[in-house]
Amino acid sequence: MSVVSIAAGMLAGIGLDAWLGEPRRAHPLVGFGRVAQAIERGLHRDARLRGVVAWCVAVLPAVTITTGLVHLLAMWSAWAAMVFSTVMLYLAIGHRSLGEHARAVEAPLRAGDLDLARAMVGRMVSRDTQVLDASQVAAAATESVLENGADAVFGALFWFAVLGAPGVVLYRLANTLDAMWGYRTLRHERFGWAAARIDDGLNYIPARLTALTYAVLGDTRRALRCWCRQAPLWDSPNAGPVMSAGAGAIGVRLGGPAPYHGHWEDRPVLGEGDAADADAVVAALRLVRRGVWLWLCVAVIAACATSWIGGDWHA
């Protein structure tokens, strides 16, 4: 794809997401999840090799078909190929959905309805939300916004820019399998190893670009300090930079103990400042939204620059 096509596709994909939101019926990722469950039932063994095979069976056919469709459409019409690629990006992005989920937590927090806030944040995180107090609910929602800004927005934009529709399909399906198989449970300790490691690899650069985006758009010095000091202490090599830089950028304290599967897990503290509240959720959403605008501006500037110098650079 040319730089101009990439910029146009990013603008259109973000625009479609803002206009339509996630498909309410027959979302392709829901269908993929069912396929992945069937593949797991058929191939699961307590072995890494089985996990590698299952990952390939689940992801590679979809990426191959997407690649073939892009090439076929491009032979017929460059516009058709760009429209198809834009639709793939739209289906992979969850910017509007992220805001909807976060505001569904923020509103009851402001109203003092802790039970509803707990129920709503339970749709965003995997921890035991019924034992959380108001600040912990706000922290969970804020962490989810910052981390999913990388996973559901910036990561998809990055791989679209690098590899077009096949790249964004590869990234989003790998991300979905990590969410399904990547946990260190008895069932997935070995089987899910490949899904977790592949997702880590695909997210390595986008996560750091996201962290840098948060730092540039917030309190830069504090964000960079938190990133350098706190990210290495976090279990996830990609969530650590994203959440520590994001928390530092908006001046909030996240991390700390959290309940999972009936017991409290002691996690490092992320960020600096006051404990999280409803304002922190809004600040995280604003940071992600401003980051999207920044990425779109960079893409448009790159497209204008290549057009101005008369080049036809291809990614």
From TrEMBL:
Species annotation: Lysobacter brunescens
Residues that span the membrane, as ranges: 51-70, 292-310
HAMAP family xref list: CobD_CbiB
Entries under InterPro entries matching the protein: Cobalamin_biosynth_CobD/CbiB (IPR004485)
Protein name as catalogued: Cobalamin biosynthesis protein CobD
Record's keyword terms, sorted: Cell membrane, Cobalamin biosynthesis, Membrane, Transmembrane, Transmembrane helix
Membrane topology category: Multi-pass membrane protein
Protein's cellular compartments: Cell membrane
The family this protein is said to belong to: Belongs to the CobD/CbiB family.
Main localization category: membrane
